[in-house]
From TrEMBL:
Belongs to the NAD(P)-dependent epimerase/dehydratase family. SDR39U1 subfamily. It comes from the Bacteria. Residues 270-305 form the DUF1731 domain. InterPro entries: DUF1731 (IPR013549), Epimerase_deHydtase (IPR001509), SDR39U1 (IPR010099). NCBIfam families: yfcH (TIGR01777). This is TIGR01777 family oxidoreductase. Residues 3-223 form the NAD-dependent epimerase/dehydratase domain.
């Protein structure tokens, strides 16, 4: 198949590109800064020659959008909104104009669309959409509005010959450098991977290999459309999540952090505490109902695999460095 991935140079795009290319598919990445073979320039806003790649493709997986790993200032929140909505709109226009439109359009969304809650999990049918929870920062509501506008842009696109699926993804855990697992592992190794603000808030996550398998599943199942939660079936409180990560790496202690300490740490890291404090209790209702089998349904096993792969990468890097040193 020919698969086009707008915005495919980030962590999730790299994971998909690597796996889908290895499976023998032709993968084309649309990016603002093409640097490799099969990368094509686009700006995420305006029409261009890139649209020719969509015409005749089999699958489009749109991942474009400004990273959420930043301070949630008004300017950054607006950039998140605009980058997601405008890129989705222009992808929809390209699909609508294609003489041979793709059979399926998978559109990235986010589990952040659901409410901050502790009492029950959110699936696609009974889940509560956020935005009106009491006692949460006002800008959390704007994050939900971003998610809803992102999905609406795909919903209203006039693409009658293309099946549309919105990927309400939890955090994708991969051993790659620079991703969310990398950041959390660094904190754990420094002894800072303890409960934050009590640690009762739920963490939803998905192992990178299950993420790829779920995407492949949704491509193959031509009867599935609309929102689909991409999350492991066992979200868990943040304190237990970090305990599992520490155990996998072999760190006995994780210092706790108050909300104020989390605010300070987020400021230093140029990110925001919503990523730490919002309770994302999301479950994959539709995937489970349709028979999808998670290889990594539970966090301890997933964390163990990710740690083994991370350590394997370090070992290979060390061996390569020794070989280079020996030949110089």
């Amino acid at each position: 198949m020919k698969i086009v991935i707008p915005g495919g140079t980030g962590q999730v795009g790299t994971i998909l590109n690597r796996a889908l290319s290895a499976a023998g598919h032709e993968v084309v990445v649309l990016t603002r800064r093409p640097a490799r073979e099969r990368e094509v320039a686009w700006d995420g806003r305006t029409w261009g020659p890139w649209a020719e790649e969509i015409d005749g493709s089999d699958v489009v997986i749109n991942l474009a959008g400004r990273s959420v790993s930043c301070r949630y200032t008004p300017a950054n929140l607006r950039a998140m909104m605009d980058s997601r909505v405008h890129s989705t709109e222009i992808v929809g226009e390209a699909i609508a104009a294609a003489a041979r439109p793709p059979g399926v359009w998978l559109q990235m969304s986010t589990a952040t669309v659901y409410a901050h809650r502790f009492d029950a999990p959110n699936d696609e049918v009974t889940g509560v959409i956020g935005g009106s929870e009491p006692d949460v920062p006002d800008y959390w509501s704007y994050s939900v509005e971003i998610a809803r506008a992102w999905e609406r842009a795909q919903e209203v696109a006039d693409t009658p010959h293309t099946r549309k699926v919105a990927l309400r993804s939890a955090m994708v855990m991969s051993p790659d450098r620079g991703g969310v697992f990398d950041v959390l592992l660094r904190l754990a190794r420094l002894g800072l991977g303890g409960p934050v603000a009590g640690g009762g808030q739920y963490v939803s996550w998905i192992h990178d290999r299950d993420f790829v398998r779920a995407v492949e599943f949704l491509i193959e199942r031509d009867d599935l459309r609309g929102p689909v939660n991409l999350a492991a079936p066992t979200p868990l409180p943040q304190r237990a999540f970090m305990r599992g990560l520490r155990s996998a790496w072999g760190v006995p202690v994780g210092l706790p952090a108050t909300r104020a300490m989390a605010e300070l740490g987020a400021f230093v890291l140029r990110t925001d505490t919503e990523l730490l404090l919002k309770s994302r209790r999301v479950v994959p209702g539709r995937l489970l109902a349709e028979g999808f089998d998670f290889a990594y349904a539970d966090w301890p096993e997933a964390a163990g695999d990710l740690v083994r792969r991370r350590r394997g990468d370090r070992g290979r890097a060390g061996a390569e460095g020794a070989l280079v040193s020996g030949s110089s």
